[in-house]
Design goal:
By secondary structure, the chain is an alpha/beta fold. The radius of gyration is 26 Å and the shape is elongated. It is built from 13 helices and six strands. The longest helix has 25 residues. The termini are close together. The relative contact order is 0.15. The chain folds into two domains: 167 residues, Up-down Bundle (Four Helix Bundle (Hemerythrin (Met), subunit A)), CATH 1.20.120.430; 158 residues, Rossmann fold.
Length: 342
Amino acid sequence: EFTKRAFLNGRLDLAQAEAVMDLIQARSETGMRVALEQLRGRLSEELGQIREGLLRLLVEVEAGVDFTEEGITFISPDALGNGVQKVSERIGHLINTAAEGRIVREGITAVLAGRPNVGKSSLLNALVRADRAIVADLPGTTRDVLEEFVNIRGLPVRLLDTAGLRQSLDVVEREGVRRSHEALDRADLILAILDRSMPLAAEDRQLLAQAQKKACVVVLNKSDLPAMWEPGEIGPCSAVVMTSAMSGGGLEDLRDAIRAAVLKQGLEATEGIMITHLRHQTALLGAMESLDHVRNSLAQQMPPECIALDLRAAINAIGEIIGETTIDEVLDRIFQEFCVGK
């Protein structure tokens, strides 16, 4: 209620108001830092500059429409095209942060997968620094998907320990394997666990083939034991880490690899100026589409009235993010999130 009042009284814009809830619900230090910078207005400042640039272009276009009888040209088609291109590049940069922004705000799901007894549960315990999963030498100990949340290098990660992938006559274990495959299908990141102290098996090859279709880290576990094969034998992989869940060796490298696998661009240069809400992304995509229409209109030498219409649409789309152009239904939906548990 107080945040909504602050918005309605002009103390916060809509993006800053949403950042208040993001700050409250942040699951990691990185998410908290991004939300805090947005609350301070870094995203709003960038959007305000983009909107102001579009307004200046619109003024030039509409002035040319109003003074056609005087034969005055306020902006040339080339200058207008260059201006639209510069604004589009800034919008495109923000859109490109949306995928990683979602990760920062919502986190990722990482699945530990592999054959029985490769050390999946031991690695889960090592990553969460607690004995969450039962560990035993008996194959098939893990029958269901075990879920734990952990902060890895500033990112909220939902770790899923799964049943060992193998053919089994046991009805319960077969159900566990089925659920493992379901988890793999839904995963944002696959941690493909292989045991270097045992020969490579067909199940290992099948897992690697499936893992390469998504963000993946291949974990060569049990590095404290004599190795029976070399890393080159598994073929090209995007990321390979050697670990020992028993001794803790390689765990820091694994944490680095998990972060790098899902944050391709790195956050250091974009923290604070990042799109973390689907609503923002949708509005920016709408603005970009309107600017594409402007470029097409220029190429086809359409009347300036058509160009002005699309520029207004782009301005309104940007305004939706910061609350310059809103409807009551949108506002009610946004501020309903603050009422959870009230």
